[in-house]
Amino acid sequence: MNIHMETGSDGKMLIVEGKESEMVDNYELKMFKSNVICGFLDFDVVSIDNKRRYSYDISGATSIRDAFGSEAMNRLQVIQLVTALKNAVSELNTFLIDYDKIFLTPDTVFLKDGKYNFCFCMENDISFTEGLRDIMEYILERIDYRDNEAVVLAYKLYHQVVRDGIGIEALDVEGEKRDTFERNAWENVAKKEIISYKDYAEEYDIREDKCKSENDASKKNFSLTGQTIFFAALCGISFVGIFVEGMLPLPDTLLKCVVLISMAAGAYSLMCDYRKYKGNAGKKTNEAESDAKTYGAKTEDSSGEQTMLLEPQCPRIIYSMGGEDVRVSVDRIPFTIGSGRDVDCLIKRRSVSRLHARIFNEGSRYFIEDLRSTNGTRVDNKRLAHNQVVELFDGSIIEIADVEAEFKKALD
Hints:
- By secondary structure, the chain is an alpha+beta fold.
- The chain has 3 domains: 1-177, Transferase(Phosphotransferase), domain 1 (Orthogonal Bundle); 197-298; 316-408, Tumour Suppressor Smad4.
- Helices cover 38% and strands 24% of the residues.
- The protein contains 9 helices and 21 strands.
- The chain has helices spanning 27-34, 64-67, 75-94, 128-142, 148-162, 180-188, 197-220, 226-243, 252-295, and strands at residues 2-8, 11-20, 43-48, 51-57, 62-63, 102-103, 109-112, 115-120, 298-300, 306-308, 316-321, 324-329, 335-338, 345-346, 357-362, 365-370, 377-379, 382-383, 389-392, 397-400, 403-408.
- The strands form 5 sheets. A 6-stranded antiparallel β-sheet has the order 12-11-21-20-17-18, with no helix packed on it.
- A hairpin with a 2-residue loop joins strand 17 and strand 18.
- The longest helix has 44 residues, at 252-295.
- The protein is elongated, with a radius of gyration of 36 Å.
């Protein structure tokens, strides 16, 4: 196909000349002539020398290649582009039109008045799947690598299309199908700093003291309820009334009954208070032990012996920096590695790219992907190609440029 631009009295036009074929006014073209199909540029079709000639009005429009030629795409722009394409496909499905005829290239997708518009062309010989892959590759080229979430989304969409073969209708654009762990990681886990093994130990000591103080407090906070105090006071007053004549205008027999009833009720209430106290103390102890196991504090087993859990309950990366071991917990998914300020594992080396690699999971399996780094990523001495994904196992050796690290899975 011959593609070029023309500017005339009717404005700026994109011209697509197809192969030689007989001009047939088919169903798809009739639908476009008689209906307003949202998401597509207006176009006319004529036959010149037995070749179809498509003229698209692109006045005031800019191709995405030109629009993002000098500026990077952010996460919102990626979402808008893919969502617009999904909506365009849905429109064609409504009219029973084959969406394989969407001319999908960075030069034929246009941005006009803040909205994305596509070209429908019967002469298009590029399959929709191939075109979609080209668009995803272009997004990876133009994505803003300073925007961590934009990068993660772009690579996620790329792998859904290229690796998993997911169709446009099923693409997870805004992460609505993320599993709970990944969603909570993005929304609830604060940015963390790399800390040394010594810092970990200090943090564990602090958490251990907190657990101990909660246990001690639970053992000291036994108190009487108002009901118990009331019965005790009633019993005391009635008992005094028996021996102090005229204090209470009631017969001695009645006062003795009140004393006995108050003593019984007070004893029962006191027993209930004690049971409640024991139950709360046990509950706080269990919670403290649970926190201790989560954060690595000391706990006591049934024999009374203390056990120290030194490792966090999630995968971790261990590498050496300045003669000191650095242990970083992979406590969010996706987990990014690089020298940029917004990554999860910050390695301050000039050889490490700003966004060098990322780790993600599928169930209990963990994978690493090279994010088009300059000096490359190696796993167990095998260099990864750009965007290549390999599985990580317990003890896998990861080389981030010239920094060697070990991947350790969570304790069972």
